[in-house]
Amino acid sequence: MSHRPTGITATASERLVRYPSSWDLLAETSRTFYLSIRKLPNNVGRVLCLAYLLLRVSDFFEDSAALRPQAKLAWLRSWSAALGGAPLDSDWGNRVAEIGAQEVDAVAAENAERILSEFEALDPAIREPVRRHVRDSTEGMIRWIKRGPQVETEADLDNYMHEVAGRVGYLSTEVFTWGSPAIARRKNDLMRLAREAGLALQTVNVLRGIRKDYQRGWVYIPDEFLNDAGIRSEQLFDPAYHRQALQVVNRIANKAERHLQSAIAYAQTIPRSEHRIRRACVWPFLFAAATVGISRNNAEVLYSEAKITRRHIRRIVLVTSTFGWSNRFLDWYFTRLVLYNQCGHAP
Question: Are 214 and 301 in contact (CB under 8 A)?
Fold first, then answer.
């Protein structure tokens, strides 16, 4: 599950002009992750750029509002096979463009053949671990589409988020340790935190997308959270149940904060000498922390979407570029961000 800006998909020839490189594709599909990945050392950034784009292909088919479940399964199975080496249909890009005409998320899927071609040229030592994790995530999406759109328990939610985000934590760690001997020496410590780091970002996606997900037929908030608050999923958006709905919002926010504590520990485990990789990890985690901070007790989460401003993003980037080497500072700044609505501090 992901939430990116919407737009109009171009024709095949227009797409090639508009997105001449994989970096252009990444900037279109996720400006936030582009900001972090583009700052990585060249070898690491190149691998993560392509890995992210491969995952966006899977994500598009899972999320597309234009596809019914059986069609999603068919597309994801074809994509999983392609990740394993099977050829894509010769008309793949145009077929994707037809189903995703109003969805900018389709951009990566339309360009899947080109992305795969660039991916296959990577060093096999990192290409194969990335392939395995992307394919495992895709197969996890298939399993969840078969299961259906209801999440009964927090354990169910964590299971889903593991497939779409926890595995990404493992993938990223593989890339970082491949690219840096200093990080490789801390691989075991990082792997213990990697799943939680992925779950942290995905829980914030759940928080941001409560209404949009409900509108497309998915409810990622566990039934047990709703039952404990004394409401049903459709009552989340009824002003008569405002207090109970905010209780659910805050519970999701608290869950995100717990995962984010491990995510910050993950970033702190990156050696200070690898400041570019460390910084690239810190940014999305702190953007997520700021989102949690503005979401608590905030009705906008239910009626539209609560998100941090570009000004806040620029401030986080500036402050952490100066002080992000300090673990003590990261602990303090993280707390400041997640407690925004209680303390009144600007992110």
Answer: no
Which amino acid, residue 137? S
Q: What are phi and psi of 191, to 5 degrees?
A: -60, -35
* Paired tokens of 114: 């080109």
Domains 12-148 and 150-347 in one fold:
yes
φ/ψ of residue 304, rounded to 5: -150, -95
Q: Which residues contact 250 (CB under 8 A, 6 or more apart)?
A: 296, 297
CA angle (22, 291, 277) in 5-degree steps:
45
* Residue whose token pair is 């985000």: 165
Task: Take residue 257 and report the two structure tokens written for it.
Answer: 């904060």
Condensed to tens digits (0 to 9), the pLDDT of residues 204-255 reads 999 999 998 888 888 899 999 999 999 999 999 999 999 999 999 999 999 9
Considering Cα of 33, then 292, then 162, then 73, what sign does the dihedral take?
Answer: negative
* Token digits of residue 224: 């047990």
Following CA atoms 141, 145, 146, 150 in sequence, which dihedral angle do they give, to the nearest 10 degrees?
Answer: 120
pTM over 0.70: yes
- For domain 150-347, the CATH superfamily is Farnesyl Diphosphate Synthase (1.10.600.10)
Residue 235 tokens read as 């009552």
Task: Determine phi and psi for 172, rounding to 5 degrees.
Answer: -60, -40
CB 306 within 8 A of CB 291: yes
Query: Do the Cβ atoms of 274 and 204 come closer than 8 Å?
Result: no
**Spatial CA neighbour of 137 closest among 70, 206, 82, 80:** 80
Q: Which amino acid is residue 121, in one-letter code?
A: A
- What distance in Å separates the CA atoms of residue 329 and residue 294, rounded to the nearest whole number? 21
Structural domain boundaries in the chain? 12-148, 150-347
Cβ neighbours of residue 279 under 8 Å, at least 6 residues apart?
36, 39, 320, 321, 324
pLDDT digits (tens, 9 = 90+) for 30-49: 888 999 999 999 999 999 99
Token representation of residue 87: 């050829």
Residues forming a β-bridge with 219: 150
Q: Does domain 12-148 have CATH number 1.10.600.10?
A: yes
